[in-house]
Amino acid sequence: MHRNTQIFARCLFVVAVVFAFAAAPSRAAGQATIRDIATDTTDPSNLADTEPSIAVNPTNTKEIVVVSFSENWGSATDAPVWHSTDGGVTWSKAKQIPQPSLPGPPPVPTSGPGDQKIAYDASGKLFVAELGLDSSLADHDFVFRQTGTSTAALTPGAAYGNDQPHLDVDRTTGKTCSGRLYSPWLNFGVSPERSTVSNSTNGGSSLTDVGVGDNSSFPNRTSRIALAPNGSAYLVYKTREGAVSGVHLPGSSASDFENAHFRVKRSDDCGATWGALGTAGTSVHGSSTVQTFFTINWGVTGTGRKVARARSSDDWIATDPSNGDVYVAFVERDSSTFGQIYVAHSKDKGATFTAHRVTDGTHHSAYPEIAVAGNGTVGVLYIDFLDTGSATNFRHRFARSFDQGLTWVDENLQTMDVATISNASSGFLWGDYEGLTAAGNQFFGVFTGQSISRTTKQLDPIFFTETSAKPTCPAGKTFCGNTCVNTKTDKNNCGTCGLKCTVIQACIAGGCETRCPAGTQECCGGDFCRRTCPKQCP
Amino acid sequence: MIAFPRFCIRFLVLGVCLMATIVKADAQVSLSQVLSNDKLWGKDFPAVLASLKAWQDAGASQVLIFPNRVLSSSAFKAQQPAEAALGKFTQTLHAAPPQPQKSFEKLMAAAPMEQFQAGVIAFGEDNTQRVAWTAPSASLLAPDLTIAKVKEAIGPPQKVTKQLIQGEGDRRPIELTLYSYSNGNVIFAESNYSSPGGAVDRVLLNVSAASRVLFK
């Protein structure tokens, strides 16, 4: 080949490689594909895009929508919904959430949005629950429903509710509750506050409010909903049972934890009544209280650092679309002294739960969202932070369980030092919740993370997708934790995943065998080798 | 306090910087100029000025001026102390008004007070009880007032800061961007809930400083 042609070909190759990297989605350390939803063009005001929510169209899983605080509505402009029609590779903004008003006369326009959740029904129609503020800055909720094309202005329904509306729509077909819309929210209009669920047969045009949480002794919080394939509706909420004194997050002097129960209630009649699991519902962690976060100091408090709010950021609920099993993710400060993510699993429609820890007991963790894929794999999106060193590095993480929540494979999606991100507002870094869902055998999520390939480093809505398929290993190896190992020789997974040999043992043919050097013997049940064993073991 | 622009330190051009700072300070608009600038205020704004003594007696260090409502900066968790403050407010409001300075006599003579109603409201921003003075059809701020229009009328602010207001609930907290003028005695605030376009959400006015300017 001619020399100039060779140079040209090499240049072309380099350009092609660079272009391929630029065009390809960024990859996290694990397998998940992540992508910044916002760009300089779609987000020229560099908004922080907090409290994101995600939904996947069940009739076309390439069609994905996200809402976050990406622009307000006003008298002359609608708030946006992010749309992707190619499975999350590219995103555009459709201004389609008009300013809702309270009934008059004259109608009172609200400002907002102040909270949001997005969902599809079985036919692929879009619904969004939003919170707006009146002139006294009091909360009012609205469900917006699709009445035109997928990107046309949505139609607001009647005002209802109060704080933090969530949303789901029964996507079953041919059942009594098919198409029923449910929106849980927290009622600050009663004392103490009560978890309430509004339901609607007409897509939120009008709603019926039903008090659900047991607030007879304690205020409720963190209300989330999940709908089972048989048409049952489940609500998880917490009862706030008093601050934990003397326990603080790093650098904080406040009471950052509270005692709580996380409870599940069930409705078998399309949300009309919720007594199927008793007045208070089932506690997913047994009868004792657990300690969970209730703080505006989540992180490390100190000069030059930023912290998050974690008050209603400690539970989420999902059902297995194939068999109706119920899963609840919740926070518990356990013997590790860290707030940890647990997942409780019920095989009997919420009557009983068995809980296992997702996280590894080394970092404070919160903000769990949970989803279950079609093959039964469970996914949990959560955040933890590193509390050593001069910076606070928050990590968005995604854990999967291929065995109904018994063991977990964990990957880091993104690490960010929010102190270096100018539009990260200390006290409300990403909000109270983020987004996770599953469609078929794929997980889809969105979190408020550090921008990727933006001119100005900032918080953006970051989309990710991850398979629910258990990783396959080469012949002779087994998937344990998050790697493939040879269980015949691996000291940490000897014979089976998680079975550890002692320091003086070797894993031989799948069994732990003591191998003390010549002239020494095994002491203290295999803890060490000595010429002479001590009379008392340490 | 005089704040030196960052470039002063970076380039150590102290003389030039001092000059720039002094020029900036000299150029700062006085509270009197702000209060009498009709590009900033709506037709009913004189009522706010005429009510300042009542706000002072009700214990308000600042008033929060919204398009058709004035709120006290005094925030109460319980209804009772808020009602007591309301009593003091209405008592002074109905007493003989203080004598305005000559330069404000004309403006305050036309203060449309009758349309306003005083009461205690539950202020959703921080879940407190506040004394409020409201007239649904009033226009206290200039129509469609934006921060850009404020800057055009009275120049750049002395200071721009952020304030995050965490209520007891879970909705997105209100974050105010505060544009301070006249040594912080008048602050134009933009809210993260405002419609797009940098609309002024409210104005925070120092009651005692404004009273000193307005009254004999």
How does this model look, in words?
- The complex is a heterodimer of chains A (538) and B (216).
- With 538 residues, chain A is mainly beta.
- Chain A folds into 2 domains: 348 residues, 6 Propeller (Neuraminidase), CATH 2.120.10; 48 residues, no CATH class.
- Chain A contains 1 helix and 40 strands.
- In chain A, the strands form 12 sheets. Chain A has a 5-stranded antiparallel beta sheet, with no helix packed on it. In chain A, strands 17, 18, 19, 20 and 21 form a 5-stranded antiparallel beta sheet that branches. In chain A, strands 3-4-5-6 form a 4-stranded antiparallel beta sheet, with no helix packed on it.
- Chain A is globular and about 95 Å long.
- About 4% of the residues of chain A have low confidence.
- Chain B has one domain.
- In chain B, 35% of the residues lie in helices and 22% in strands.
- Chain B contains 9 helices and 8 strands.
- In chain B, strands 3-4-2-1-8-7-6-5 form an 8-stranded antiparallel beta sheet.
- In chain B, strand 6 and strand 7 form a beta hairpin.
- Classes of the chains: A mainly beta (538), B alpha+beta (216).
- Chains A and B meet through loops of A and strand 3 of B.
Question: What fraction of the residues of chain A are assigned to beta strands by DSSP?
Answer: 35-45%
Taking all Cα atoms into account, the compactness measure Rg of chain B is: 18 Å
Percent of sequence in beta strands of chain B:
15-25%
Portion of residues within helices of chain B: 25-40%
Which strand order do you get reading across the main beta sheet of chain A? 1-2-34-33-32
Give the distance, in angstroms, between the N- and C-terminal Cα atoms of chain A. Answer: 74 Å
Q: How many β-strands of chain B, per DSSP?
A: 8
Biggest beta sheet attributes of chain A? 5 strands, antiparallel
Q: What would CATH call the class of the largest domain in chain A?
A: Mainly Beta
**What does the overall shape of chain B look like?**
globular
Q: List SSEs of chain B in N-to-C order.
A: HHHHHEEHHEEHEEEEH
Spans where pLDDT lies below 50 across 5 or more residues of chain B: 1-26
As for the number of domains of chain A, it is 2
Q: Which topology of the largest domain in chain A does CATH recognise? A: Neuraminidase
Q: Tell me the strand order in the biggest sheet of chain B.
A: 3-4-2-1-8-7-6-5
Number of helices of chain B: 9
Number of strands of chain A: 40
Q: How many domains would you count in the coordinates of chain B?
A: 1
Structural class, judged by helices and strands of chain B? alpha+beta
